Amino acid sequence: MPKDTSIKTVLIIGSGPIIIGQACEFDYAGSQSARSLREEGIKVILINSNPATIMTDPSMADHVYLKPLNTKSIIEILKAHPEIDAVLPTMGGQTALNLCLEAEEKGIWADFNVRLIGVDVNAINITEDREQFKQLLEKIGIPAAPAKTATSFLKGKEIAQEFGFPLVIRPSFTLGGSGASFVHRKEDFDELLTRGLEASPIHEVLIDKALLGWKEYELELLRDKNDNVVIICSIENMDPMGIHTGDSITVAPAMTLSDRTYQKMRDMAIKMMRSIGNFAGGCNVQFAVSPDEKEDIVAIEINPRVSRSSALASKATGYPIAKIASKLALGYHLDELMNQITKSTSALFEPTLDYVIVKIPRWNFDKFEGAERTLGLQMKSVGEVMGIGRSFQEALHKATQSLEIKRNGLGADGKGYTNYDQIIDKLTNPSWDRVFVLYDAIQMGIPLNRIHEITKIDMWFLRQYEELYTLEKEISTFKLDTLPKELLLEAKQKGFADRQIAYMLGCLESQVYNKREEMGIKRVYKLVDTCAAEFEAKTPYYYSTFEEEIEKADGTRYVHNESIVSDRKKVVVLGSGPNRIGQGIEFDYSCVHGVLAASECGYETIMINCNPETVSTDFDTADKLYFEPVFWEHIYDIIRHEKPEGVIVQLGGQTALKLAEKLDRYGIKILGTSFEALDLAEDRGRFSELLTELKIPFPKFGVASSAEEAVTLADDLDFPLLVRPSYVLGGQGMKIVINKQELEEHVIDLLKSIPGNKLLLDHYLDGAIEAEADAICDGEDVYIIGIMEHIEPCGVHSGDSNATLPPFNLGEFVMQQIKDHTRKIALALKTVGLINIQFAIKDDTVYIIEANPRASRTVPFIAKAYGEPYVNYATKIMLGEKKVKDFTFNPQLKGYAIKQPVFSFNKFPGVNKKLGPEMKSTGESILFIDDLKDDQFYELYSRRKMYLSK
């Protein structure tokens, strides 16, 4: 049965602002879905309130509505578009599903004659309502953990009495494990039960016996109207049950599952999917398996939508789940669709992997002082990285190198823990850095059995770790000139970085690199092709590895490299790595637009990134995708292989910018603003000299490298003082101090966590107004794309402030100073591309806080508010293809646009919610108002000083 021709217009519901538990994987799904539907000639209407995403780009749909995700907005859209035939709610996470259900209950879909595709209401209800789901599993004979449902406090107490402890409390209809918890002790039960009941929109929780220590697996499935089902990917959680899958280190394909149990699990998953209603689309099923030889399987949950894991599974296999799921929702059958990678086989096939994937989450606990740092049922990570390798060890190393937490991989960097009690504590109470702690424990000589007994991590994984440590020990007995080739090759095949090998040998990273070159140990690139090279892949999506040389019959030796270099002129765009607070999805938006603009200018585009949730790592965004760590060694090898005209660093946030110095030192051309200018803007001393020359005011400041220097400086600068380390993003480590004691404590604290860093002390302009401007410059002309005024006073990080575009109460005199300062600074820094400048305004004088010659968090927001593709223009200027005067700027905005930050404090009960110079928001939404009399503006303005913390 081919596509349903009665569907001509579809409404896609997005997932709203990024929060912990629901991140940019839904931007990826929504973007892919919109493209997939439009390929079929379907008109797409899209609603989402997140301005930072590619999904809400005007090019993605026929009509994009940046509106709050509520039924009022849905009704407005359905009235404006009576032609909407169907709604697809499976691409926007839990937010979209919940909104869709609410609209169904209110009869909105029926009123406007709109039908649901991709899922049915029955399926959502059965899978989200824990009681209904439990009954369904019983009916179809699939084992589940003993559990009972409670809709009241008293009922919950009764169940606990019956089951005994430990227990798990899981609220219905929540995402990212919100409100879920383990209860080990009777004393904690009352509080945790109350939290669970409150977290569920229907005040219902499931209380089940904790399957502590069981192994956890996920399967990603697709099903069509004809009841064909394919399993796209099996994923194994390295961590046992008890840690939310979003916070688990996961591996694909499953590593420690016997084939017999895997087949049983497949059958169960297919049976479950077929029994939750009649729908076509994607599904994620989670199972627990007993860690003994019986391998008993218990079903945990099923999600009838694309999920965080389906983004991972798509990137892991190259099979675009959201794209195919959208076509299935239109009525297509799997055997009628093409495999998007080979373009010659059908989509009704199960991908086979000849490589291993490791996903590691990325946390930001340092932003939440006093946060409970142990991991459990509530998800706490803000992003993730994925490594692809020929072995688990190589993939694990690549993933740890991608995290950007100042580690070079596992071990061999002198940064591990060496205190026995601390290591045992971190193994007992799972912590964010346990991927490294396991290595430290083995290094300390703690037996594998003991580590297994504490963590319940499968022995297979622990042995892999042990092998890595054994290899490190062996290499450490050599010097650079005595190291045998086979040992160096083995270390590279197992993922050790040159930096780590240099640490083992006591030499420089560059010496190891040269030794490798000399010995002919070079990276080769392999295709991610969904079918283990059984059919030819048409999509250039690569990962690197190391191979033994092969000798041909004529005696020549070679290694097989699948990445063929073309003779086209090329440009490399460096991605922004894992999402974190201070560097989120807005840089993915900028990278995607940069790639598309370079492509329009006739360049072959090459994307390097390691974030599985993003659109920039979709296999058909750039001409070539290297799914590799944004880590010097990997980037340098790709550049040497591809020989591009240059590299764009200003679109990937601080991650890409930090690599500019190395690129410059190695003579690789940086497209756009030079490294010299980027460095000048980061170096406060030199930047202040420049401002003095330009006669532009800035707050008095000093630089200190010890607590003693800081206290001496304070006498000259006057309190309050803003203290911050240089070269950080998202206000990391920033604090306002009001006396010498606070100053001393904070400085000692900072130098302990970032040794050797210089600290900047600024006189804090108390009560000042903060504003910022984004501009495009070509070295001669400057065009200011937007000036925003912050509603919160100076001192709250710009990422945590509500910002209005255009400003709402800056006089003509102040606005003129902002414009003049922006132009002068952009030209003085010889900016080519984008620049963001932040200002503090006090007594009608505009002071400069900082200038960042790169894409900023606010560029996508301004582009959406004004309806103009500023990143596209800026990229063409960086490439030297266009000048500012070649563009006709015509911004369109009625009234005001407000960028509203969104926080995920609910994941960290007990954390101080005050705002200050360190950024804490995880995402943002956009709000359009006609005038300043709007109630929402009034409410924001009246609360503006409430959270300021000193």
TrEMBL record:
Uppermost EC category: ligase
ATP-grasp domain boundaries: 134-330, 688-879
An example Gene Ontology molecular-function term: carbamoyl-phosphate synthase (glutamine-hydrolyzing) activity
EC code(s) of this entry: 6.3.4.16
Any Pfam family: CPSase_L_D3
Record has Glycosyltransferase as a keyword: no
Catalytic activity entry: hydrogencarbonate + NH4(+) + 2 ATP = carbamoyl phosphate + 2 ADP + phosphate + 2 H(+)
Alphabetical keyword list: ATP-binding, Ligase, Nucleotide-binding, Repeat
Signal peptide as annotated in the record: none
InterPro entries, per database record: ATP-grasp, ATP_grasp_subdomain_1, CarbamoylP_synth_lsu_oligo_sf, CPAse_ATP-bd, CPSase_dom, CPSase_lsu, CPSase_lsu_oligo, CPSase_preATP-grasp
SUPFAM superfamilies with a match to the protein in the record: Carbamoyl phosphate synthetase, large subunit connection domain, Glutathione synthetase ATP-binding domain-like, PreATP-grasp domain
Source taxon at top rank: Bacteria
Family: Belongs to the CarB family.
Protein's UniProt name: carbamoyl-phosphate synthase (ammonia)
Species the sequence originates in: Flavobacterium rhizosphaerae
Source species taxonomy: Bacteria, Pseudomonadati, Bacteroidota, Flavobacteriia, Flavobacteriales
